[in-house]
Amino acid sequence: MSQSSQLFAKARTLIPGGVNSPVRACRSVDNEPLFIASGKGSRVTTEEGRELIDYVMSWGPLLLGHCHPEVSEAVHRTVDRGSSFGAPCRQEIDLAESIINALPAVDMVRMVNSGTEATMTSLRLARSFTGKEKILKFIGCYHGHVDSLLAEAGSGMATLSIPGTPGVPEDTVKQTLLAPYNDLDTVESIFQEQGQEIAAVIVEPVAGNMGLVPPREGFLQGLRAITEKNNSLLIFDEVITGFRMSFAGAQGLFGINPDLTCLGKIIGGGFPVGALGGKKEIMEQLAPCGPTYQAGTLAGNPVAMAAGSATLNILSRMDYENLSQRTARFASELKNILESKGVPVQLNCLGSAFTLFFSPDPVSDFASAKKSDTGLFQSFYNQMRKQNIYLAPSGFECTFTSFAHTDQDLETTLEAARMIQF
Ligand code: KE4
After folding, report:
1. Ligand 1 site, residue 236, Cβ cutoff 6 A
2. Whether the CB of 155 sits within 6 Å of ligand 1
3. What is the mean pLDDT of each run of 10 residues along the chain (422 residues)?
4. b/e for 163-175, b at 16 or more Cβ within 10 A?
5. CB atoms inside a 10 Å sphere around CB 370
């Protein structure tokens, strides 16, 4: 029995499902999780000493790869002076400034500890600012485990085919309106009926939790126009796309200014950080400036702030276009290799993220994503893992490259794909 299996057996007696986040359990690919002992650059090493090329990258935060020396140095330098004071520290200003300088739609920012806290706060703020209660989200988008946003969410809920979740009161979900991603007509008709009650639309500007699904031409622009016309807020959930799709996020890439922006993952450089940013007049509704309460013991702690600032500082100097081109070439070659084995493959790729859907039809929303053959994905995942390629254990997640992935890593991965039998 491998070290990972032994540890997993022990973990299951102590932690529900043996994991602290469901998708890590590898249930949908009929496998057990590997226990990771360390990471460096593009690689992780398991407790049994196996080294794998990592395309999970902690589900998105590690755009610089594992243990970037400058990030590690910033963390060590900071933690040796104290981990948390529950008081303002200069590191909060540094990270806030980096985010505000990079994102066109962000005048002010409030730090939190996760993407979920950021999206949860964005809804409360939108409701208090507009005085309206309904929220519109898109089927297959995942915004963290916020009660009112778990209706037909993606990510782990799609992976485990959980339509909603027990424990969320009917009344809570009643305030949540749903539309298919990329379907502006449905959004338009919902607003015609209920626009006066809709506080906000929350959207992943590039969906990453039903697999990668880019916005159709005009979709985001349409959301911006409809929300403006109805005095509703537009919330971009950029927890995945922020500082990934470009250094100015998806809002910079598409030239659309949302009213509020939710961030996480990359801005923490591998530490627990989320953030809510937006227009000054809205953000100043937050306590203690305004009446809308939000708080967090470890929000803005100096160590996580230092990791985030070091990460953004390095990213500001990186060549995103080159990484996007390398990723596109790699993903397209991977698709060709798999297709040559007689299976239907759709590729959605943008920036340094992509998803291969085992489906004969293009994927532009959750309904089309769900048509993918999860059995083929399971076979692909397990055969690649056997060859030390570490992919997300779900067909409804993204494959992430990073600035740490070398051409050799990508070629080794393609070699592994060539060995696959369906
Ligand atoms: P966290 O609370 O997990 O930091 O962020 C929630 C969240 C919010 N918005 C978007 C667009 C997200 O993708 C996420 C979290 N992403 C998933 C994977 N796609 C996290 C992985 C997990 O749940 O273990």
Report:
1. no
2. yes
3. 96 98 96 98 98 98 98 98 98 98 98 98 98 96 94 73 75 90 97 97 98 98 98 98 98 98 98 98 98 98 98 98 98 98 98 98 98 98 98 97 98 98 96
4. eeeeebeeeebeb
5. 19
Coil, strand, or helix at residue 263? strand
* Nearest CA owner, ligand 1 atom 22: 21
CA of 256 relative to ligand 1 center, distance in Å: 22
Q: Give me the sheet containing 389-390, strands edge to edge.
A: 36-40, 43-46, 51-54, 389-390
Angle in degrees, CA 25, 30, 35, rounded to 5:
40
> Is the pTM of the predicted complex or chain greater than 0.90?
yes
Ligand 1 site, residue 238, Cβ cutoff 6 A: no
Which pLDDT belongs to residue 154?
A: 75
Ligand 1 centroid to Cα of residue 220, in Å, is: 21
pLDDT at 157: 75
Nearest to 158 by CA among 210, 212, 206, 205: 210
Ligand 1 within 6 A of CB of 206:
no
> Which two three-digit tokens encode residue 296?
């967090």
Which domains, from first to last, does the chain contain?
3-64+319-419 (3.90.1150.10), 69-315 (3.40.640.10)
- Cα 167 → chain centroid: 24
Burial 195-204 (b: 16+ CB within 10 A, else e): beebbbbbbb
Cis link prior to 104 (omega < 30° from 0)? no
- Count helices and strands in the chain by DSSP H and E runs: 15, 14
Q: What does the pLDDT read at residue 172? A: 84
Q: How confident is the model at residue 166, as a pLDDT?
A: 86
Q: How far is the CA of 143 from the centre of ligand 1 (A)?
A: 7
